[in-house]
Specification:
416 residues, mainly alpha, globular
Length: 416
């Protein structure tokens, strides 16, 4: 077997540009800031999602390009491993083309359905675990500060949790570390975060990577094309979370890609089909190990369930925001009421934006499933460690899904 067995097809795959969803969802920063201000003032009940980059996407051409490459591979490639890996990947790209087309046409329910096909749907196990985690987070906060305001918001949010048709039940305990005894203060600004990321990149000899502050971003974004980690200007972190995010973004997302460059299959650089369904779970797992705390994730799952109407009645953009706002007020590390309000508004708005992005934000029952990858992937990682513990030693060889039998076969054949 040669040192690289798929250089030709990897080059052709990379030449098909525009088939990544997140760049299209960034929108126009000035528009995003203006809509956020109007929403928080109560002037509108849903922001107007504006995706100008989608205007430049030729959906028909993109689909033709993918289908043409599939035809080429089926005709020319004799290596079964390469054929299977690339055809699976290209079929996934066709699904993504359909998703981007639905966004462009403002077909919100199609966006919701296709995003679940691409990123996975919300299972009762995942939601039950999320409900338990959020309940425990608030209970933990109340043990240290049972103020009337915190208690009032906690009771409101507890009533929402009780409205779901799945039990509030502890999920797989993937770590023995306890939850944080007390919510930590967010002492690092976006500039501090950028500095820490850049220091970590330099320490790992990733000199062609950089981190910068950015306006209009809903969260921290790792852009592999520009080799940039974007940090929202409004983002603040605790010291513990900063260390965890370095493990998440650099030591997992970036290093899996960089390690794959040393291997025989170039496709492991960008990822085998379906790798994304475990990628965020592995990153979150590594983050929790560094932060030394147990699983308390799932707030994005709950926001999605509310918006999509999974195991409960569907909620509007404003309703999801208000519910999540109660959660973050009950969880706020700040005793000052004005600071606590600002914190809760920022966190709740970010959750709501990420839940409804890709849609118009106005169709009841339509939501974007991408954020289910975090907590859902974390549960999948625990299943992998239980059922296929031998996989742990090769988690970092490239972007693959250790829960996928085909992926494990590919790596076995490659001797990885």
């Amino acid at each position: 077997m040669s040192s690289t067995i798929d250089s030709k097809w990897f080059k052709k795959l990379k030449a098909i540009r525009g088939l990544i969803d997140l760049p299209y969802l960034s929108g126009d920063p000035d528009h995003a800031i203006a809509e956020k201000e109007r929403f928080l003032k109560g002037e509108i009940d849903s922001v107007f999602f504006y995706y100008p980059a989608l205007n430049d996407l030729d959906v028909v051409q993109a689909k033709d390009d993918v289908l043409y490459l599939i035809g080429e591979i089926e005709k020319e490639e004799k290596n079964e491993l390469v054929r299977r890996a690339y055809i699976d990947k290209l079929n996934e790209k066709l699904l993504l083309v359909d998703l981007l087309s639905a966004m462009k046409e403002r077909d919100d329910m199609a966006v919701a359905d296709l995003s679940e096909k691409l990123y996975g749907s919300l299972s009762s196990e995942q939601l039950s675990s999320a409900l338990f985690n959020l309940h425990e987070n608030i209970a933990n906060a109340l043990e240290h500060d049972d103020s009337p305001v915190r208690r009032e918001n906690a009771n409101i949010f507890f009533s929402v949790l009780d409205s779901f048709s799945v039990p509030i039940q502890r999920g797989l305990d993937f770590l023995s570390f306890p939850l944080l005894a007390k919510p930590e203060e967010l002492t690092l600004s976006d500039k501090d975060i950028v500095l820490r990321f850049n220091q970590a990149l330099s320490e790992r000899s990733l000199h062609d990577w950089k981190s910068v502050s950015a306006s209009g971003k809903a969260g921290i974004v790792v852009d592999h094309r520009s080799k940039t980690i974007f940090v929202p200007e409004t983002r603040k972190l605790s010291e513990r979370r900063m260390k965890g995010l370095i493990a998440h973004e650099i030591d997992t997302h970036i290093m899996r890609r960089e390690n794959a460059k040393k291997g025989p299959l170039r496709l492991l650089i960008s990822g085998l089909a379906g790798y994304i369904q475990i990628e965020e779970g592995l990153a979150t797992y590594n983050q929790r190990v560094v932060e030394k705390r147990g699983s308390n994730g799932g707030s994005r799952d709950v926001a999605f369930a509310l918006a999509r109407g999974r195991f409960t009645q569907a909620s509007s953009f404003r309703e999801v925001f208000e519910i999540m706002r109660h959660y973050f007020l009950a969880l706020s590390p700040f005793s000052d009421s004005a600071t606590a309000e600002e914190y809760a508004n920022e966190k709740a708005f970010s959750h709501t934006i990420r839940t409804f992005r890709g849609t118009s934000g106005e169709t009841l029952g339509a939501a974007y499933a991408r954020d289910l990858l975090y907590h859902g992937g974390l549960l999948k990682i625990q299943h992998v460690l239980k059922e296929h513990p031998e996989e742990e030693k090769r988690f970092m060889v490239g972007k693959y899904n250790p829960a996928d039998e085909t992926h494990r076969w590919i790596l076995d054949e490659l001797g990885l």
